[in-house]
Amino acid sequence: MRPPDPSEMPATGASNVRPRVRIQTPALAHEAAQAAANARPTDALRGSPRGEQDSALTVGREAIFDVQDLSVSYGSSQAISGVTLQIHRNLITAIIGPSGCGKTTFIRSLNRMNDSVPGFTIDGKILYHGHDIYDRGVDRVEVRRRIGMVFQRPNPFPKSIYDNVAWAPRNLKMKSGLDERVERALRGAALWDEVKDRLKDSALGLSGGQQQRLCIARAIAIQPDVLLLDEPASALDPIATAAIEELMQTLKNRYTIVIVTHNMQQAARVADRTAFFNLDASDGRRTGVLVEYGDTDVMFTRPADTRTSDYVTGRFG
Q1: CB-based burial of residue 211 (10 Å sphere; 0-12 exposed, 13-18 middle, 19+ buried)?
Q2: Angstrom distance (rounded) from CA 49 to CA 71
Q3: 59 vs 129, higher pLDDT
């Protein structure tokens, strides 16, 4: 399982600045709902994995993840069922949906963070660069090195700023040029200028927004291929949130980013593509399913499914 080193991949030529996406007003929502009701689902979804709309953004882009009929259970409780989608290089993909629909379960499955959860079982496949990450013999540590994760609340170690960033490289025996590696990661997280004169100070003395950027620096210090962000700004104030969102636009030139968010405006601002998950109770059990997946501007203005329209316009969730 040896894809090219991310540092060797050319950056895309796309601009960092995305056009602002307008969230639907009730009038627009009504028009979109009518169009969705009149449309034949196969017209929107023909030629793509189930639930996924065709996209000019993905033409010629490598699929980093190819998720095939993924179902995840914890004991007798099924969290998500039948999820099929592809996630492409150097795009920001947002995972949205109401609480309990399996968004975090899905994103944690992408780097095997659920493995230690009691009763966890998985069906289907998650191919990363064509390799099934759940195959026997696949090294979970290597998976997590290549697919980094930042959690909902900042969780710096009770160590110095420097030691937080250096922690993973040291443990992975990547000690050569450690000072340069730490500086590069802090610069990559747009934090270097704020902390360069106090690297030996405790990371716990940083503000919440700085701590979250430190966690991002810690994740990219080992040069992963993918960054998974599980509601990275939900505990931050608007100024710190704006800094994280701006940073994401810079980071996507080098990394593929998948973000879980409950904030519809945030998804519209930062994501290139958006996947909408919802709860399905058709068989008497509440299970997370993928309803629709496509370019963010289409998902928020011309969704193919009325459930998507209802969610992004605030009718439920």
Answers
A1: buried
A2: 15
A3: 129
- On the CB side of 110, CA atoms within 13 Å amount to 33
Tell me the two tokens of residue 220: 């990219």
What is the torsional sign of CA 238, 240, 243, 245? negative
Instruction: Give dist(CA 15, CA 24) in Å, integer.
Output: 25
DSSP string, 183-233: HHHHHHTT-HHHHTT-TTSBGGGS-HHHHHHHHHHHHHTT--SEEEEESTT
| Cα 4 versus chain centre, distance | 21
Neighbours of 129 (CB within 10 A): 17
SS3 of 65-84: EEEEEEEEEECCEEEEEEEE
Q: What 3-state class would DSSP assign to 301?
A: helix
Q: What is the pTM of this model?
A: 0.82
The alpha helices in the chain, defined as continuous H runs, are 26-38, 41-45, 103-109, 140-146, 161-171, 178-188, 192-195, 208-220, 238-251, 264-270, 296-301, 306-312
Say if CB 258 and CB 226 are below 8 A apart. Answer: yes
Token pair in block for residue 266: 């945030």
Nearest one of 226, 222, 227 to 169, comparing CA atoms: 222
**In terms of pLDDT, which residue wins out, 27 or 302?**
302
Please, which residues bridge with residue 115 across strands?
Answer: none
CA distances from 233 to 20, 59, 152, 208, 229 (A): 19, 30, 7, 10, 9
Q: The tokens 């796309």 sit on which residue? A: 14
Q: Which of 34-38, 106-110, 269-273, 296-300 has the lowest mean pLDDT?
A: 34-38
pLDDT tens, residue by residue, 177-221: 999 999 999 999 999 999 999 999 999 999 999 999 999 999 999
Tell me the mean pLDDT in the region 25-35.
45
